[in-house]
Specification:
Number of helices: 5
Shape: elongated
Strand content: 15-25%
Structural class: alpha+beta
Distance between the termini: 16 Å
Number of domains: 2
CATH topology of the largest domain: Alpha-Beta Plaits
Order of helices and strands: HHHEHEEHE
Helix content: 25-40%
Length: about 160
C-alpha cells in the first residue's frame, strides 16, 4: 500500500491491540476499544481490504527453536544492473534463514538479518551460499551479542 489510509481513533486503538494480541476475540477487542464486536469485525475487514492489516501470525522464540544467533550482514554487489539485482533478490527469497533484507543507499547495497543456530551454521551459509552467489562481491558480518529490543509493533 503506497497511500496512507485515513484512520480514526478507534481504528488506531484496534491496530494497537491487534499488534500485541493478534488472537484476541472480537468481543474482547470490542471491550478494550469501546465499540461493538460487529463494528470491530467490520473495521478489521475494512483494514484488511485496504492493506493496512496483513496476515495474522504467531511469533516464535528463536532460542526455543534452535536459532540463537542473529547476524547483521552487509552485502556489496559486483554489478548493479536490474538482472543481477533480480537474481540476488530471488536468492534472498529462497533462503529461510534470511529474515529481513533491505536495499540500501550508501557504501553497501543490501543489509540482511540472518538467523542461524550458531557460528558454524553461519559460516556454512556465508561460504557456501552467500559469497558463492555470482552477484555478490563482498560481505561484512556483525554478530548480535544480545537482543536489546525487538518489536513488530508499529507506532499508530
Amino acid at each position: 500500500m503506497n497511500e496512507h489510509h485515513n484512520l480514526d481513533a478507534i481504528d488506531r486503538q484496534i491496530l494497537r491491540v491487534l499488534q500485541r494480541h493478534g488472537d484476541i476475540s472480537h468481543a474482547a477487542l470490542a471491550e478494550q476499544v469501546g465499540a461493538s464486536a460487529a463494528s470491530c469485525w467490520r473495521r478489521i475487514r475494512a483494514l484488511e481490504n485496504a492493506g493496512v492489516l496483513g496476515p495474522t501470525v504467531r511469533l516464535l522464540n528463536p532460542q526455543a527453536v534452535g536459532r540463537d544467533l542473529d547476524v547483521i550482514c552487509q552485502v556489496r554487489m559486483r554489478a548493479h544492473d536490474m538482472q543481477a539485482r533480480a537474481n540476488f533478490e530471488r536468492f534472498i527469497d529462497s533462503h529461510r534463514e534470511i529474515m529481513e533484507c533491505y536495499s540500501m543507499s550508501g557504501e553497501w547495497d543490501y543489509l540482511l538479518r540472518i538467523v542461524v543456530s550458531d557460528v558454524r551454521d553461519y559460516e556454512r551459509f556465508l561460504m557456501r551460499e552467500l559469497l558463492s552467489h555470482p552477484a555478490v562481491a563482498t560481505c561484512a558480518s556483525h554478530f548480535a551479542l544480545s537482543r536489546v529490543k525487538f518489536t513488530t509493533e508499529l507506532p499508530v
